[in-house]
Amino acid sequence: MTKDTLLISATGLRKSYGSHLVLDGIDLQVAEGEKVVLCGPSGSGKSTLIRCLAGLEARQGGEVVVGGHALDADCKNVGQYRGDVGMVFQNFNLFPHLSVVQNLMLAPRCVRKLPKSEAHDRAMALLERVQMADRAHYYPGQLSGGQQQRVAMARALCMQPRVMLFDEPTSALDPEMVGEVLQVMMSLAKDGMTMIVVTHEMGFARSVADRVIFMDGGSIVEENTPTDFFENPAEPRTRAFLNRIEHH
Questions:
Q1: Which tens digits make up the pLDDT trace of 211-236?
Q2: pLDDT confidence of residue 78
Q3: What order of strands is seen across the sheet that includes strand 6-17?
Q4: Which of 72, 169, 202, 229 has its CA 20 to 30 A from that of 144?
Q5: Rg of the chain (C-alpha set)
Q6: Long-range contacts of 77-82, Cβ-Cβ distance < 8 Å, separation of 24 or more
């Protein structure tokens, strides 16, 4: 991985809540265009890791650099690279009092200072892409979970980020809505978007990821290509986790 293509770099990342160590010296490098899936048991630190990369969580130690911008430990300078990082949460986080198209236009207008007409055109093009253009003037409360999550993805894309971070984007959805969200994510991957995805959707990991990382106890236990990760896991903890998921 050359320095030119390195988009995200975390070195010796440490994060605690009080005396509870959540991330214990994480090293992670992600190249431009790479798709990385993070998996592991609940409480292993996956979501905290991507929240630290997004500048949503202060950290106690280590370095985080995204798109050439070093992030302060207290995240005070997050504004410098906020537009480079798109984040999609488990629970959508749409503004309920704004229509779908207004949700998408807000950040480009406030942060990127985009003229209203340009922000509107960009928002509508992205709603078209996630097959939600016909719901542009609905409010989030009028949409299903799967529809809200597709709008949330379009909203993140509206800032034209260089990397998209997904925190269990399908875990709050009814099973029949999972497919429509994964489809949008697959099309993003196909277009070359750099992605870090926390998920238990192992079919998605197998077909889309360049690398699968298994975390446990705040550390990276194992990382490999999807083929080797699923067919020949090296660590007993990884094998135990995959067995549990397969028989779930």
A1: 999 999 999 999 999 999 999 999 99
A2: 87
A3: 20-31, 6-17, 61-66, 69-70
A4: 202
A5: 18
A6: 81/55, 82/55, 82/111, 82/159
Nearest-5° Cα angle at 168, 167 to 174: 140
Q: Are 214 and 238 in contact (CB under 8 A)?
A: yes
pTM over 0.90: yes
Q: Which two tokens stand for residue 18?
A: 């009080």
40-75 core/surface letters (b: 16 or more CB in 10 A; e: else): bbeebbbbbbbbbbbbbbebeebebbbbebebeeeb
- pLDDT tens digit string along 183-201? 999 999 999 999 999 999 9
The β-bridge relationship of strands 20-31 and 6-17 is antiparallel
Interval 109-137: pLDDT, tens: 988 899 999 999 999 999 999 999 999 99
Is pLDDT of 4 > 70? no
Contact (CB, 8 A) for 208 and 199? no
